[in-house]
Structure prediction request, 255 residues.
Amino acid sequence: MERDLAATIEARGVGLTFDAGLEALQEIDLSIDAGSFVSIVGPSGCGKSTFLRLVSGLSHVSTGELTINQLPPIEARQQQRQLSFVLQDATLLGWRRVWNNVALPLELRGVAEADIKTRVEESLQRVGLNQMANLFPHQLSGGMRMRVSIARALITDPGLLLMDEPFGALDEIGRHRLNDELLGLWCDRRWTCLFVTHSVQEAAFLSQRVVVMSAQPGRIRAVHEVDFPYPRPRSLRTDPEFGRLVARISEDLEG
Prediction:
């Protein structure tokens, strides 16, 4: 299967003011290289999710310039069709079985049935749910539903994956497990990932860079490089140097 190239994101002086006059984002300058994993942390209401909506083309900047592969986001989405979005809620269709939920993006693109079958099987295998293909969403745990959502997002082999608090509703054990699985998938395929989370530890464990945003209007307060090599073992979470990095990010977050 031919896959799209990973996406490059460029934000220069990006600002967003809502119609009511509320300034949500101010002077966002950020470059994200193709194939990189970047997390955004910040207080509630600082504009983390709003920035993801701008990148996805669902909202439009008020000031500055934002491009995906040198195109405005909505053009990149329409022309290259390489973007996938994963939300905190798995947003599965309750009346469709797991197999059919994962197949939906390909059905909407008119992909041939034989190709859909192959790609759904591959995608479910990647997230370890091939034995659950005939179940309905209500028959799955929260972690399994999120894995289905990830399988659906990755079935188009996107160049850009946007993730908005995808594991926020899970317990710590489930969250750690899906962090490990997500990193394994990313190391294998190397799409560009922009990941929003409230968890500093999660951001540091997953990412090459962690962007810290300030309170509204959202601005970039700091960017932390994460130099631990991939693949990252679970034991990294208890490494003293990792703990010091988490502490430094937390200090910037608290301001």
Residues 1-82+191-255 form a domain with the Rossmann fold fold (CATH 3.40.50.300). The chain has eight helices and nine strands.
